[in-house]
């Protein structure tokens, strides 16, 4: 009986051992430890959420399902990083296909303006984990500067291999600044954006 129990325990160790060995170390929270190079967005671990007031009754929530981004990073000169983001406005998703398509055209003019872009122009470092990224946001045929409040979440090994770095960011924009004035009043002017993003080094 003891031999059977020992054999079972040994088998479990053999099964669990590789999984335990593959478990990544905790994320590093020092941006100076992030290797230099080009980083590309992992769209499987990224989200862009937009909320806007609906008749003063709720913060209507929308998600963009197709986005791409990349940046070049040098830990010795983090302020010199260059960030470029592209979002497909037709990928706007509110949980209903018909409404999503209507809103993408009505608010974002997705048919005539098939890309939303953001290109960084300045980066300010507040502390090791926080800073701001200012850039040119273009959609609905207009371009205006926007500043994102950014949090550096860490750098570390991925569960699926390789190394990755993660950020969170938020900002508010006035959609009327970009010529998006449909249903202005019942639908708010201020749009709150929430970004979660993981990048892998290439």
Structure description:
The chain has 202 residues and is an alpha+beta fold. The chain has one domain (2-201): Lipocalin (Beta Barrel), CATH 2.40.128.110. 16% of the residues lie in helices and 52% in strands. It is built from two helices and ten strands; from the N terminus they run αβββββαβββββ. The chain has helices at 2-22, 97-108, and strands at 37-54, 58-64, 67-73, 82-87, 92-93, 116-127, 130-139, 142-157, 163-174, 187-201. It has an eight-stranded antiparallel β-barrel with strand order 1-3-4-6-7-8-9-10. The N and C termini lie far apart (53 Å). Mean pLDDT is 89; it is low at 1-21.
Biggest sheet, spatial arrangement of strands: 1-3-4-6-7-8-9-10
Structural class, by secondary structure, is alpha+beta
CATH topology: Lipocalin
Q: Radius of gyration in whole Å, from Cα? A: 22 Å
Strand fraction equals over 45%
- Counting DSSP E segments of at least 2 residues, the number of strands comes to 10
Average residue pLDDT: 89
What is the CATH C-level name?
A: Mainly Beta
The share of residues in helices is 10-25%
Q: How many separate helices?
A: 2
What low-confidence regions span 5 or more consecutive residues with pLDDT below 50? 1-21
How are helices and strands ordered from N to C? HEEEEEHEEEEE
Let me know the CATH homologous superfamily. Answer: Lipid/polyisoprenoid-binding, YceI-like
